[in-house]
Amino acid sequence: MGGQSLRGKLLIAAPVLQDYFRRSVVLVVEHGAEGALGVILNRPSDVRVADAVPALAELGFGDEQLFIGGPVQPTAVIALGEFGDPEEASSIVVGTLGVLDPERPPTSLARIRVYAGYAGWAPGQLERELEQEAWIVEAASPEDPFLDGDLWRVVLRRKGGPYALLATMPSDPALN
């Protein structure tokens, strides 16, 4: 990737990844010389936002499902929202999708996804994993965090070509 930032891109777990990230889709929120940070978009929990982050319930999103963003700092919360006014976001990731600033409650938030924990990479680590073909990179859409269904399959189909065929792979290879 030659020093190019992957911020706003999706990392789709390649079939070789059979660890924690198996069949995950990660949205890269930050990426630079210090490393990278992202959230797994397709790992819902059984917890409601109101039970985990009462402050976000006050914004009217308490009944939303909490998602598991990754293995790093599971008590840390990252909230992604669709902003009517991008100036209200802590940072914009892609399109109107940005990171919620906990110090400034937004007034233009259309919808939100809240993640407990995140995925993190040390400097150069993500680049090495990409060289090992552990991840398939795809452009993110502001809609991706809010899509229902098997996001891993959806984004592989969207990427097209041989990736669309990969999307047909059963989640349990023994069923193949």
Automatic annotation (TrEMBL):
Domain of life of the source: Bacteria
InterPro entries, alphabetized: AlgH-like (IPR003774)
Entry GO CC: cytosol
One Pfam family named in its UniProt record: DUF179
Protein family according to the UniProt entry: Belongs to the UPF0301 (AlgH) family.
Protein name: Putative transcriptional regulator
Lineage summary: Bacteria, Bacillati, Actinomycetota, Thermoleophilia, Thermoleophilales
